[in-house]
Amino acid sequence: METEAITVGDAARRAGLSPKALRLYESLGILAPVQRSPAGYRTYNEQEVRLLRFVRRARALGLTLGEIRTIVAARRRGESPCGVVMELLERHLRDADRRIADLQALREVLGEVLRRARSAAEEGEQVHLCRLTQSVDS
User: What sign results for the dihedral spanned by CA atoms 117, 121, 122, 124?
Assistant: First the structure.
């Protein structure tokens, strides 16, 4: 049974990606070279569209294209990539936790600076942070 040939635009729409992304993923080896129509247009099948959906979901989780290529390559070799995927997700989770902690610390510093500036302004003192804006007007 012959599978339906899906155009690049339709494959991109079904996967929630841009046609440019499909060409990029093929050039990076994430997507194997696809079939071409007699006129030379790329054509995709349903299995390739499923792979593209996986790539979109993996990117949404923060995986890099290199990481995704590693996962796809393992799958192509017939290996289960589950261990690699879990390791990558654990690393990304640790990175996210670190970024959140950094942002929380920054939020505390910003809150304290703003609190001091407001307090100084309410007491009629010159707020030194506002000097930063003076160079913008000059």
Answer: positive
Whole-prediction pTM:
0.73
> Looking at beta carbons, which pairs linking 86-92 to residues 24 or more positions away fall under 8 Å?
88/63, 89/61, 92/61, 92/62, 92/63
Copy the structure tokens of residue 65: 């294209």
27-85: per-residue pLDDT in tens?
Answer: 999 999 888 888 888 899 999 999 999 999 999 999 999 999 999 999 999 999 899 89
Look up the CATH number of the domain holding residue 44. 1.10.1660.10
On whether the CB atoms of residues 45 and 37 are closer than 8 A, the answer is: no
Total count of residues recorded for the chain: 138
Assess whether 67 and 110 both reside in one domain: no
Residue carrying structure tokens 């390559």: 73
Closest alpha carbon to 32 in 62, 77, 64, 2: 77
